[in-house]
Specification:
Radius of gyration: 18 Å
Oligomer: single chain
Strand order of the largest sheet: 1-2-3-4-5-6-7-8
CATH class: Alpha Beta
Number of domains: 1
Number of helices: 11
Helix content: 25-40%
Largest sheet: 8 strands, mixed
CATH topology: TIM Barrel
Strand content: 5-15%
CATH superfamily: Aldolase class I
Number of strands: 8
């Protein structure tokens, strides 16, 4: 049965309201640069913590998505055109923030032949040009199975290639009607085929009606295509029109899922109620040896995942 919309969230979801000086500075910078972040568009509960650490996930290709996933708060519509200056603005923002690790994601742009890959490649190259020591993680859509677009993105040299599987096979079509479970797995497999040394990553939500056994099966599927890093977080309903929350997982259950994932061979599994695909991505990349420990998160403390 769905969890009642009016039910109080469990105590482990309590987060501090955003509003510190770094948060306000970063918000002002995003407005001045005409940039979007998935932190805001997707109503991420970690926005206060991450922005205070001066880390954010840039969302390129506009703020209108061509798909309507039933768990996502990003607006759906018909995007117009392509902002060719966006990669330079992203790189300038990364430079102004002094980042050593940045995450870049996007809406789905099924209206574009390459799904927007040209903007991803531009962002990767521009960030490396403006801030040579900064590592780049890209969280990409499935490009509708356009493997040339995937290859071009990889050739630009991201340190981590992330593509979220999001949920289990049985639930997938119900919450991602325009997506395809096997296509997402194929994308991660192709990434390793094109560049065997590439670090690949995926993420999923729980609480959409799946069983623990199905979650473990997703983990096995991801390991079969060589996926290195995994995030698992609790689904939270953005509004009454979105898919209902079917279950709130206890932190102990997340710890168990993390242990299972590590036993299956992932280099790192971040699992917890508030974990999202780019949450502490820099520290997770340490496990994949993408960045040295002392360079991660501008000196932020080590993080072993939520307890």
């Amino acid at each position: 049965m769905p969890v009642e919309q009016t039910q109080r969230l469990p105590e482990w979801f309590k987060v501090r309201m955003p509003g510190g000086s770094n948060f306000l500075d970063l918000r002002a910078l995003m407005r001045q640069s005409a940039l979007h972040t998935v932190c805001e568009e997707a109503h991420c509960p970690n926005i206060g913590e991450c922005w205070e650490r001066r880390t954010a996930t840039f969302m390129v290709l506009g703020d209108l998505c061509t798909r309507r996933c039933h768990y996502c708060a990003v607006r759906t519509g018909r995007p117009k055109g392509l902002d060719l200056e966006e990669p330079e603005r992203v790189a300038q923002a990364v430079q102004r923030l002094g980042l050593r690790y940045c995450v870049i994601t996007s809406v789905n742009r099924d209206d574009l032949p390459d799904g927007g890959a040209s903007i991803f490649t531009g962002c990767i190259r521009k960030v490396h040009e403006y801030v040579p020591g900064c590592k780049v993680e890209v969280l990409i859509p499935d490009f509708c199975g356009n493997w040339d677009a995937l290859r071009a993105t990889l050739e630009a040299g991201p340190e981590v290639l992330n593509h979220n599987i999001e949920t289990v096979r049985r639930v997938f079509r119900r919450v991602r009607p325009k997506g395809d479970y096997d296509r997402s797995l194929a994308l991660l497999a192709k990434a390793k085929e094109f560049f065997p040394e590439a670090v690949t990553k995926s993420g999923m939500m729980v609480g959409l009606g799946e069983t623990t056994e199905e979650v473990v099966e997703v983990m096995r599927d991801l390991r079969r295509v060589g996926c290195d890093l995994l995030t698992i977080g609790q689904y939270l309903r953005p509004s009454p029109i979105h898919h209902a929350v079917m279950k709130f997982y206890h932190p102990r259950e997340f710890a168990e899922l993390r242990d299972i994932g590590m036993s299956l061979g992932f280099k790192h599994v971040a699992a917890g109620p508030l974990v999202r695909s780019s949450y502490h991505a820099d520290l997770q990349a340490v496990a994949a040896r993408v960045v040295p420990q002392d360079a991660a998160s501008n000196g932020a403390p080590r993080w072993a995942g939520p307890s």
